[in-house]
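Hi there,

I know you've been waiting on this one. I reran it after we fixed the sequence typo, so this is the corrected version. Both the input and the resulting structure follow.
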Amino acid sequence: MRSFRAVAWDVDGTLVDSEPLHHRALLAGSLRWGVDLSDLPEQQFRGIHMADVWAALRPRMPADLGPADWLAAINAYYIANSGDLKPLPGVVQTVAALAARRIPQVCVSNSNRPVVRANLAALGLSSYLTFAISLDDVSNGKPDPEPYLRVVERLQLQPNEVLAVEDSRTGVASAVAAGMTVALCADLPIERPDLVTRVVDIAEILGWPGLWRSRRDPPVQAALQGPPARKGDGSTR
């Protein structure tokens, strides 16, 4: 049995279906300088560090445009339109159920802090989370292990005591490198079946403690260590 004492959520694509808005923000922000990126597939930069996005697109940008101004324009569009965001199915109920069991929950994102705050505000999840790690809180974002190492350091837990929930190769690589087990809520190849288990529907977490059912892998019994839920108690305090 794998025992976990906390949950670390990725945000984009895991808690919220934000990739379409991120793509629109990338296009709108770049278009401010006359750069048309409409030829890019929507999933082109899913889970990718924005510094790497800038490096990939730099040849298409004006010579006098710097990454800070470009990113500020993208983030401004995203935040202005974040009211349209919706949580993925089962997310709010899942987070609330874990909070009722007084299981610490955090989020770990490759987005900047203002974008993370906008996401959590749109979902109404801020009050359930102990803290958030954003791109502004680390020197190296995912796939580097630093974001998840910051999590276990602040929670004062061991990596194998925290379950990461991810949807991208970048996020999985970061969490695995930090020594954590990952619940993968996306249809991606599983390269480390000893450390990654597949979740068909993120709402299945509501069954904890119980069985993780998966498409291709044997069920993994996962027990969350914490006091039993008290009826009507949705507080993390």
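Quick highlight: Residues 67-80 form the longest helix (14 residues).

Best,
R. S.
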